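Problem: given the chain below (143 residues), write out its structure.
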Amino acid sequence: MKTATVFTTLLVLILSFPLAAQTVGKKPPKVLLKDYSYKADDGNLEFEVDVRMADCISYVELKNPDSKKPVKVQVTENDYYLSEENGQDIILRLSLGTLKEILKKKEMLAADLIIYSKSGKPIYTNELSLNKADLISASGSWK
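Solution.
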């Protein structure tokens, strides 16, 4: 009886390990505006999320209901960093594109954010709201 219980427990742990390993971390993903230029009214949008292990994400996709083609950004090994806060968490940081490319003259955009694993399956799905004014004020650069 003990052997069957131990075997079942081990089997459940082994089968659930890949699912836990390929998910994003505890903190919600965030989008930051970098290198904002007031004259050009443009800057680079940077996506950041903590992950449980490096090189587990294939690509990140933003699906805008108003657009026919989603924004799809491939992930490479060079997009993973150690957290600056504690030096232990693994952070995925990549450029989504410019503010003008993503928002397309809109002040606000509600899009579906989908993160795909190397196997091609979605491992994280959530709605992402991008507000131009909030992104500019959070960037701290009004040059």
